[in-house]
Amino acid sequence: MPDFQAWTTRILKRTEGALEDLLPPASVAPERLHAAMRYAVLGGGKRVRPLLVHAAGEVCGASPDALDAAACAVELIHAYSLVHDDMPCMDDDVLRRGKPTIHIQFDEATALLAGDALQTLAFHSLSRPALLADSAVQAAMIHDLALAAGSRGMAGGQAIDLASVGRQLDRSELEFMHIHKTGALIRCAVMLGARCGAPLDRDEIDRLDRFGKLVGLLFQVVDDILDADGDTATLGKTAGKDAAHDKPTYVSLLGLARSRAYAGELLDEAVGEIAPLPASGRLADLARFVVHRRF
Amino acid sequence: MPDFQAWTTRILKRTEGALEDLLPPASVAPERLHAAMRYAVLGGGKRVRPLLVHAAGEVCGASPDALDAAACAVELIHAYSLVHDDMPCMDDDVLRRGKPTIHIQFDEATALLAGDALQTLAFHSLSRPALLADSAVQAAMIHDLALAAGSRGMAGGQAIDLASVGRQLDRSELEFMHIHKTGALIRCAVMLGARCGAPLDRDEIDRLDRFGKLVGLLFQVVDDILDADGDTATLGKTAGKDAAHDKPTYVSLLGLARSRAYAGELLDEAVGEIAPLPASGRLADLARFVVHRRF
């Protein structure tokens, strides 16, 4: 997929530029906080959520500028969640994207505040004046992001995850956790991109929503496989930490082979959902990329 | 001021009801997170920011429903900042509003996530569909709140505060810190209320903005006086903790008598700013209430 690779490179570059512009310079007071925010966000990460925003934007012919703002918003929510997730009272991890985590590189208080301010910056990005011609759609997008990120979405998923350590979850409980913890924001990335352009009809929106939900699960299954299978150097984070923390994963529940088969099924279903939509090839490529990124 | 007291009681009651409705029930999963969020927000707090939102709304004849959503948004940002501020890596406090702080009553991870989710819920509240007839104004209000809460506002002020522990600040540095840490959100409360009704002209907006800035400072000066002067029982939080943490305050810089005189000057100036505005009596009463609440 040479075209997909060129597209990915282009979107990653513009996302990096948009994040760079949005994050206050480290020379502006409070300097240490701004340095920590930039350290947490720039120069790393797969940027799967921004890629999903832009790919979904192709379906509705969205303006690239609006997509940048939405892409930054979801990526900043994701980045803040990683900063807080790595803190000693949560996962207590020292390595992320091959670099020391924020509370190691800076200090715990700065990590806490940097995470807080990154979340705020996400809403700052999405509430930019004149983002879209229709401000009511913009307000609805902000509402969607808040729902996806909050206690009934991502933050709630982290709480469920915490409560599950050391417990034996069944498959539906594990799925419930992941639908919140990673699924809600990935699904939201697709829906935000899909709202930045010409209005879609109900069936199109439903298909994209189901696609987002499936890709969210797919992403987690693949993550569990990589965590069980990979090593710290390729992952850029501490490998095998789920098992070490006695956390339930798809691999611990289904085994490696059945987890791989499940990933394949989710991929087929996701791609099938969007097949009838115009200009959905990029989304399908992206779903395949999520699966094949490292195995 | 019997009328002011009746008004305050009425606004506090409706704010409590609006917060109650907005916060997910503790019976909804994740239960522990929702219980912590409710514990952090309900049944306590002076609700100065919601009162400011509603008082500013009187100047522009705003709809009470829109004011409730804005009032909840600023109060939730305030509440989240207290939860995180009390954590061991920040102020490490065990008492707030006369009750154990969240990380004591629950645990540190739950405090972290509850604070995170309360911030998200603030933006959820302010992005409610059809909050105002003009969605562009709504988006602008969300943008204002994000600016006031983020690294160039409240979160930035907390970072400056952290960096100042043990250092001797001069008056302008102290003011710079407070303008961010508490001032930005108080000012934002006034401006959010002022945008929920009929559009105001430039001079009116500027007067309200200066009023908000002055009341923000006033609030901090009074807080420093109470911290130095009060006892733990009346404050509902650990008294004298600023001195114990070697934190710079107006009292440590100016002494108690000059701090009181400064509060008086700020009050006169604030009330003078809004005197020409119609229906601004409530805001003036509220500024007086901030000063006289406990001394």
Keywords summarizing the entry:
homodimer, 295 residues, mainly alpha, Farnesyl Diphosphate Synthase, 72% helix, globular
- Tell me how many strands of chain A there are: 2
Widest sheet: strand ordering of chain A: 1-2
- Shape field of chain A: globular
How large is the count of helical segments of chain A?
15
* Computed CA radius of gyration of chain A, to the nearest angstrom: 18 Å
- The CATH architecture of chain A would be Orthogonal Bundle
Unreliable sequence segments of chain A: none
- Mean pLDDT value of chain A: 92
Can you tell me about this structure?
Two copies of one chain form a homodimer. In chain A, helix 4 runs antiparallel to helix 6 (108-126), helix 7 packs antiparallel against helix 9 and helix 8 runs antiparallel to helix 9 (171-194). A two-stranded antiparallel ribbon of chain A has the order 1-2. Chain A is built from 15 helices and two strands. Chain A has helices at residues 2-22, 31-41, 48-59, 64-85, 102-105, 108-126, 135-149, 154-164, 171-194, 202-229, 232-235, 241-244, 250-254, 256-274, 281-292; strands at 95-96, 99-100. Chain A has a single domain, classed as Farnesyl Diphosphate Synthase (Orthogonal Bundle). Chain A is mostly helical and 295 residues long. Chain A is 72% helix and 1% strand. The interface between A and B is large, with 55 and 55 residues.
Helix-strand blueprint:
2 copies of one chain form a homodimer.
Chain A: H1 2-22, H2 31-41, H3 48-59, H4 64-85, E1 95-96, E2 99-100, H5 102-105, H6 108-126, H7 135-149, H8 154-164, H9 171-194, H10 202-229, H11 232-235, H12 241-244, H13 250-254, H14 256-274, H15 281-292
Antiparallel strand pairs in A: 1-2
Helix pairs in contact in A: 1-4, 2-6, 3-4, 3-9, 3-15, 4-6, 4-9, 7-9, 8-9, 9-10, 10-14, 14-15
